[in-house]
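To: structure subgroup
Subject: Chain for Friday's discussion

All,

I'm putting the inputs and outputs inline so they're searchable in the archive.
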Amino acid sequence: MNSSNSVVLNEKCGFFDIDCNDGFRILTHNDDFSAIVGRDAEKMCYLDIVCPEDRESVSQRLAQVFSKGRNGASLSCMSVRHRIILPDGAVITVILNIRYAGGLLACTLRRAADIFTEDGARYKSNSIIESMPVSMAIVFVTDGGHIIIKCANEDFYKMIGWNRFEFSEFFNDCLNEVIYPQDCDLFIDNLRRMTDTADKGAAFEARTVIAGGGTKWNAIRAKYLSSEDERPVISLVFDDISECRRLQSELTVQNERFNIIQRSTEQIIFDYNTSADQIVFSGNVGKMLHALQLYDIKSTENEMVVNKFIESGYARSFMNEEHYEMLCQAFANAIITGVGGAFDLIISTSEEQPGIWHKCIFSPVTDEFGETVRIVGRFKNIDKQKKNEIIMEKRIHCDMLTGLLNKETAINLIREFLDGISPKDDSMEKLHALMIIDMDNVRIINDSLGHTFGDSVIQEFASDIKSSFRDTDIVGRIGGDEFIVLMKNVTLKSASKKAGRICRSMVKNYCVDNRNISLGCSIGMAFFGKDADNFDDLYKYADIAMYNAKVNGRCSYVIYDSENIEMHISFSEVQNRTQMDPPTNVTETNELDTNLMDIAFSLVAASDDILSTLDILIRTVGRKYNLSAVTVLVKKDYNEDNLKVISRWHSARYPFKSESVETSFDADKNFDRVFNGSNLKCISDISSCSNLTPAAKNSMKNANIGACVIGRLEGRSGSHYGYIVFHQLDRKRKWSRKESNTFKYITKIISIALVEKHIKPDVVNS
């Protein structure tokens, strides 16, 4: 070992040369050597001043270094710890470093820590610490900053990987040599600070270097014991915390990965303590920080703690009142039932910016007694998806030209509203007025100026109509130049004034071929609660009144009067002119549902997200034809028969075992024989269908399917890759020709859309 690593009690270092060929005699030495050994030792045999018990080991080391050095071996230096006898008979411990140099031994001598008492006994407390079931050492700190071990138990030496002799031999009992370099100053400072203050104990963490390389983390407890020769004696207890530190490090890495994922996915994680009414947000909490100053909130870069979350109403600062009540109700239900859920809400990033749609997904956590103690969940950004869904919904429910409600949606909403209230008699002040508004002379404008100009006239008229009514009123377009309006909670007088103002404000003049064409409107009105107690009669009477306004000079309004019904043309003539199919009753015709076809083509052509569009389209078909469910399945792989559901809708009125639908196709490997060359199969009664195998029938019965229409999804080459199933649950159903044709072409539209939009089965499956 290099002499610079030796640990000594003072800074004196004796240099001397030994001649091995002359009985290990000292040839030359410096003054420090004389000071250490207490005599002028020139021409003296070095072994003469070594304690008899140590002479053999010292002699062997001297001879070993000399022999190896003379033979040119790479190991030509060693150190040995031993005792020497001073002139007054005292015994001291020294460290002798030996190096071969040109036929002589060049030696250095330093005084080392003496762990023996004068009578040669071990330190008096050694037997006590040996019995301790921990890694323990008794040390003192020198003025030079060396931590010298007076004694230590076997557990301590096992902890550092050295035995007692090796540690004394190589490290001179200096603990500094096995303390991790970056931790050594902290280690010494803690020991000194402990003795310099009234506090006689300390606890800290530091690393030790173990034999063979590597490090261990230790939790160290230090305690001041006494003082010897003005040096403090300290006990150290080492507790191996390497595994804890490793797990801590892994957890830190995992948390950082989690934070990176949170930041990249724009999700907000929350943990709600139900008893403390405290919520902790993490992830992109910046979305909620614009009202921090108003509430009891602690915030860091990635975490925010809100006390009294529900009580303070903090959530109102980043969501509207409706969504706040929804959140509170969802949490309350989760606490009572122990069941999680999900709902959509808008989170506002600031008071100035519009809100962003998020999906709140949450789950309760219960204790050993089944009580809900926490609710954990996340807010997931679904703004793009939600806005796309709103646009698609609008395209389904709105007229493409004017942006008003289309015929079917407007009538459904009016019918739903009227079905939910009781008719009122003449004594009641508030009524509900149904208006049929028909534009005058639009056909002349189309024929003279073209349909493009005519469409712009209709758009402008629709905009004026929309702005003329309240947000609570229902306004829709039911034909080329015909509109329908339900004014809620009005009087006869207020409705009449409104109709008169509209007739006057809608008058516009156009010059065509040197003649003026006056554009206006004719309005017919009937009142729910006065004239009729159901939608069908109310619509009939309003339509009769509108036709009467037409034949009586146009640009006027007429209120239906049952006393003077003979003034109007017969209802059969009105019915022939503008017959409306009820939205839920499909008649037996050989025609297609052209309105539904237009909607389907418009949705598919304008869609960037074909799967979301598919969800909307099958929901529309299901509701229009009063189906129980609609399921779209595709093959997981072109070479396999297994199917995967990519879209499903079912009515809330029907229990539906969806997995049985997939099972029925898997159960019948030759399912395609059902079609007999067609791409559509109508089954009115599942139990009597001869083309289905018993296994397929049982699977469909398990799904409560009584009747169904099955369409094959086909690619350009004619090969099929899936099915669409239109279900009727719990009963038989005879499918009309119109339904059959409509479902057939809906299947073709979906087939082409999935192929054109590159939605392959393997992509869907992933």
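Points worth raising on Friday:
The first helix runs from residue 31 to 37.
Residues 7 and 172 are 6 Å apart (CA to CA).

D.
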